[in-house]
Write a structure and sequence with these properties.
DHS-like_NAD/FAD-binding_dom, single chain, about 625 residues, globular, thiamine pyrophosphate, Rossmann fold, alpha/beta, six-stranded parallel β-sheet, hydrolase, 24 helices, 3D-(3,5/4)-trihydroxycyclohexane-1,2-dione acylhydrolase (Decyclizing), EC 3.7.1.22
Length: about 625
C-alpha cells in the first residue's frame, strides 16, 4: 500500500481539496476557500498547511471570527449548499467567537466546516494560554461549546483518526437531511504530528445531490387529501431552492392554480409578479396570503420547517385545515400534526403534478386569490412610495433600494424590523435576489453575510440593508470587503436604537425602556449620535449621509457606479411599520402587572392563545 507522510493539518487540507461537486454538469471544488484568523492554536499547524496550497485553495483573512463564519454561511446558502467554505481560528476566544455563527448555520441547515484550534492533547504544558480549565472533567475544552450547535462534532487527538472522522464530516455537510455545520476540534500539537496516510485516502471524490423519492403510501395519501380539498394554499420554503425544484414547483402551482405564500427562506421561489404568488406568509406576511390561510381547508407546506413566524405561532391557519408537509427531512415533515410526505421536492412535485389529473380548486377560491393578490400589490405600491418627508419609514427605504436594484441584484438582511418589511415588500424575479438570515435572526450577520453573498455572486450588486443596532454590533468586515475587492452597497437605517423591540415592548403593554437610545441609561448629555458614514470611510469604504428618499435614490446610483464598497446612511422614523398584513406572534405577556396597558395586552394575548390551542 502506497502511503504519504503528512502532518494532521496537511492531511486535512489535502483531503478537503480532493472533494469535488458536480454543478450543472461541471466539476468544481467543494470548498471554495478557507476563512482564517491565525493564533498560537492554529498558525503553525493549519497555517503552515494552508500556505502551501494558497493558489489552489485561497485563504481569506478576516477581522472577526464570528463575522468570517457568517460570510462562509452566506456563501454556502447562496450556492444552494453545493459549494461551501471552512473556517479556522485559534484556541480559546478565537474559536469560541465562531460558536454563534455555528448556531446560525445549524438553525438554517447550512454547511460550514469549523476547524477550531484546541489545547494540547498531550496536556504536557497545561494550562496553556487561553485554556479554559474544567475542574471536574479534564477532557472538556472551550471547543465543547460547539457540540450543541454542530450537526457533527469530533476532536482529533491522533492524526490517524482523520481516516474515519473526515468522511463522516463530509457526509453530514453534503447530506440534504442532516446538512449543517461540522466541527473538528484541532489540538494544536496534534495538528503538527505526522502519520503515514494511505495515498488512496486523498483520491478525488465527486459528490452529487442525493434525491430521495417519496414513499408510495405517503404519496397516495397526499394525492387523496389534495383531491378532496377545495381551498388549498401552498407554502414555499427554502428547501425548494436547495433541491433545485423551482421549475417543478412553478409547474405544480401553475397547473392547478394554487395560491402560494412565501417564507423568508422560500422567497424568490416564484417571481414576485407570478400569478400564483400571493406574497409572504405569517407574522410578517402579506394580507392576501394570511387571509387565505385563515380560510383554507388544506395547507401544502413544501421545504419549510414551519417556524413560528410562518405559522403565526400556530394561530394563523384555519383550525379545521389539514396539512401536508413535503420535506426531505422526516423531522420537519411531521410537525403541526401534518400528513408527512418525505422526499426530495424536485422528484415529489413532479409526481404530484402528474397524479392530480383534472383536479382543480374551487373556482371561487381561485377568483378570490386573484383579487386578494391584486389588492396586496396595490398596498405594496402605497407602502414603498416616497412621502417626501425628512424622516422616512423603513418601507419607503425598502422601496427606494428595490427600485435601484437590477433584475439579478440581491438584498441581504437578518435582524430587527427590516426583515418584516423586506419579506412583505421586496420584489424580485431572481431566485437568489432575496437573502435573509431569519432562522436565528442573528444581529451582525448582515454586513459579513453581504460579503459572502458577493463572493458567491460577483456579477450581482449586493445591497445590505441594516439597522444602526446591528451595524454597531458587527461591522469589521467592511474593511475585509475593501481589502478583497468584494464590493457591497450598505444602507444603514438609523432610528437611534432597537426600534423593532421598542415596538414589541409597547405592544406588550410596556413603556419605552432600554431599547431606544433616548430611553436607556446614559449620561446627562445622552447617547452619542454615531456618524456611520465617517466610520465606514475609516474602514476604507466610500460613504455619505442623506436626508430623505430622493437623496437616497441619487446616492444609490453613485454607489452602483463605485468600484469599492459604499455605505449610505439616513435617519428613519422609529415608530411606524407598514400595518397592512402580518398576524399574531406568541411573545408572552406578564400575567400580573401594575400597568393597565400590560393587563390589557395580557387579555389580547390570552384570546390568541385560545386559537393557538385549537391548532395543537
Amino acid at each position: 500500500m502506497k502511503t504519504i507522510k503528512l502532518t494532521m493539518a496537511q492531511a486535512v487540507i489535502r483531503y478537503l481539496m480532493a472533494q469535488k461537486v458536480e454543478i450543472e454538469g461541471e466539476i468544481k471544488p467543494m470548498f471554495a476557500g478557507c476563512w482564517a484568523i491565525f493564533g498560537h492554536g492554529n498558525v503553525a499547524g493549519l497555517g503552515e498547511a494552508l500556505y502551501h496550497v494558497k493558489e489552489e485553495l485561497p485563504t481569506y483573512r478576516a477581522h472577526n471570527e464570528q463575522a468570517m463564519a457568517h460570510s462562509a454561511i452566506a456563501y454556502a446558502k447562496t450556492m444552494n449548499r453545493q459549494q461551501m467554505m471552512m473556517c479556522t481560528a485559534s484556541a480559546g476566544p478565537g474559536s469560541v467567537n465562531m460558536v454563534t455563527a455555528a448556531a446560525v448555520a445549524h438553525v438554517n441547515r447550512i454547511p460550514v466546516l469549523f476547524l477550531p484550534g484546541d489545547t494540547f492533547a498531550t496536556r504536557m504544558p497545561d494550562p496553556v494560554l487561553q485554556q479554559v480549565e474544567n475542574f471536574h472533567d479534564q477532557t472538556l475544552t472551550s471547543n465543547d461549546c460547539f457540540r450543541p450547535v454542530s450537526r457533527f462534532f469530533d476532536r482529533i487527538t491522533r492524526p490517524e483518526q482523520l481516516l474515519t472522522s473526515l468522511p463522516q464530516a463530509i457526509r453530514v455537510l453534503t447530506d440534504p437531511i442532516e446538512c449543517g455545520p461540522a466541527t473538528l476540534g484541532m489540538p494544536q500539537d496534534v495538528q503538527t504530528m505526522a502519520f503515514d496516510y494511505p495515498a488512496s485516502f486523498f483520491d478525488e471524490k465527486v459528490h452529487h445531490l442525493r434525491r430521495q423519492a417519496p414513499d408510495n403510501r405517503e404519496l397516495e395519501n397526499a394525492i387523496t387529501m389534495i383531491k378532496q380539498a377545495k381551498k388549498p394554499v401552498v407554502i414555499a420554503g427554502g428547501g425548494l431552492h436547495y433541491s433545485g425544484a423551482l421549475k417543478e414547483f412553478d409547474q405544480f402551482v401553475s397547473t392547478y392554480h394554487l395560491p402560494v405564500g412565501e417564507t423568508q427562506a422560500g422567497k424568490g421561489a416564484l417571481p414576485w409578479d407570478h400569478s400564483q404568488n400571493m406574497g409572504s406568509i405569517g407574522v410578517t406576511g402579506a394580507a392576501s396570503t394570511n387571509a387565505l390561510c385563515s380560510e383554507s381547508d388544506l395547507i401544502i407546506a413544501v421545504g419549510t420547517r414551519l417556524g413560528d413566524f410562518t405559522s403565526g405561532s400556530r394561530a394563523l391557519v384555519n383550525p379545521d385545515a389539514k396539512i401536508i408537509c413535503l420535506n426531505v427531512a422526516s423531522f420537519d415533515a411531521i410537525k403541526h400534526k401534518a400528513q408527512p410526505l418525505v422526499g426530495d421536492a424536485k422528484l415529489t412535485l413532479a409526481q404530484l403534478t402528474d397524479a392530480l389529473d383534472d383536479w382543480a380548486p374551487d373556482g371561487q377560491w381561485i377568483e378570490k386569490a386573484e383579487q386578494l393578490r391584486a389588492q396586496w400589490q396595490k398596498s405594496v405600491d402605497i407602502a414603498t412610495t416616497d412621502r417626501g418627508t425628512n424622516l422616512p419609514t423603513d418601507a419607503e427605504c425598502v422601496g427606494a433600494v428595490n427600485r435601484a436594484a437590477g433584475e439579478n441584484d440581491i438584498v441581504v438582511c437578518a435582524a430587527g424590523g427590516l426583515p418584516g418589511e423586506l419579506q412583505k415588500l421586496w420584489r424580485t424575479r431572481y431566485d437568489k435576489g432575496y437573502h435573509m438570515e431569519y432562522g436565528y435572526s442573528c444581529m451582525g450577520y448582515e454586513l459579513a453575510g453581504g460579503l459572502g453573498v458577493k463572493m458567491a455572486k460577483p456579477q450581482s450588486e449586493v445591497f445590505v440593508m441594516v439597522g444602526d443596532g446591528s451595524y454597531l454590533m458587527l461591522n469589521s468586515e467592511i474593511a475585509t470587503s475593501v481589502m478583497l475587492g468584494q464590493k457591497i452597497i450598505m444602507v444603514v437605517l438609523d432610528n437611534r436604537g432597537y426600534g423593532c423591540i421598542h415596538r414589541l415592548q409597547q405592544s406588550c403593554g410596556g413603556p419605552g425602556f432600554n431599547n431606544l437610545l433616548d430611553d436607556c441609561l446614559t449620561t446627562e448629555n445622552g447617547a452619542p449620535k454615531t456618524d456611520f458614514a465617517a466610520h465606514a470611510a475609516a474602514l476604507g469604504a466610500r460613504s455619505e449621509k442623506v436626508n430623505n428618499i430622493s437623496e437616497l435614490e441619487a446616492a444609490l446610483e453613485r454607489a452602483k457606479a463605485s468600484d469599492i464598497s459604499y455605505l449610505i446612511t439616513l435617519d428613519t422614523d422609529v415608530t411606524p411599520q407598514w400595518e397592512d398584513g402580518g398576524t399574531w406572534w406568541d411573545v408572552a405577556v406578564a400575567e400580573v402587572s401594575q400597568r393597565d396597558h400590560v393587563n390589557e395586552a395580557r387579555k389580547r394575548y390570552e384570546s390568541f392563545k385560545a386559537r393557538q390551542l385549537q391548532n395543537l
